[in-house]
What does this fold into?
Amino acid sequence: MIRVLLVDDQALVRGGFRSILEGQDDIEVVGEAADGREAIDRAHALLPDVILMDIRMPRLDGIEATRRLLADGCPVRVLILTTFDEDEYVYQGLRAGASGFLLKSAPPRELAGAVRTIATGEALLAPEITRRMIQEYIRPRPGTDRSTKLETLTPRELEVLGLIARGRSNAEIGRELYLSEPTVKTHVTRILAKLGLRDRVQAVVFAYECGFVQPGR
It folds into this structure.
C-alpha cells in the first residue's frame, strides 16, 4: 500500500485529490496539510511514501518544505503540482530534490499513475515541463566541481547520462545503445551513486548545469 500525504492550502483541492486516490486499491491517503510547515510536521509523524505537494502556500512554500524535508533525511518522495506559469519554481524544486512534477491540468486518471511512479523510486517529469525549464533556467555553472565528477564515469555511463538528460526512458536508452533494460538500469544506478544524486531528475539538472549537455543539442 502506498501511503500519501496531501499538501495544499485549499481544502477543496485536497478533497478532490483524496477522492481520486482513495478509489485506488493500492493507495492510502494518510493525512493532509495546509502549508509547508504543517507538511514537515505531518511527514515526520506519519512517514508517508509520497507527498503530493503544492508550490504556493502560506507560511512556507512547497519548494522550501521539500528542501527541508530531504535535508533532514526524511525518506519520503515528493511529487510537486505545478502550472505552466511556474517554470522557475519547477527548477528550484528540481534542485531541492523533488522526484517529480505533475501539471495541475493533467487528467485525474494520471494522478494515481504519477503517485505509483514516484513510489517505485522512478522520477516523473513531463516532457513539456522539461523542455521549458531547461531552455529558460538551466545554464552551466562555472566554478563548481560538477565537471570533475564526470571523470568518475565510464564512457558507457557518459552515454547513458546524456540520454537521461534528453528525457529518454530505460527502454529507449536500451534500444539506442543496444543494451537490455536491466543493463541500462544498472548503469543508471551506478551513475547516480557516483555523482551523489537522488534520482534521474537530479541527473538531468546535473548534466545541464555542468555543461555536459546543452539545450537544443
Notes: The chain has two domains: 2-135, 140-209.
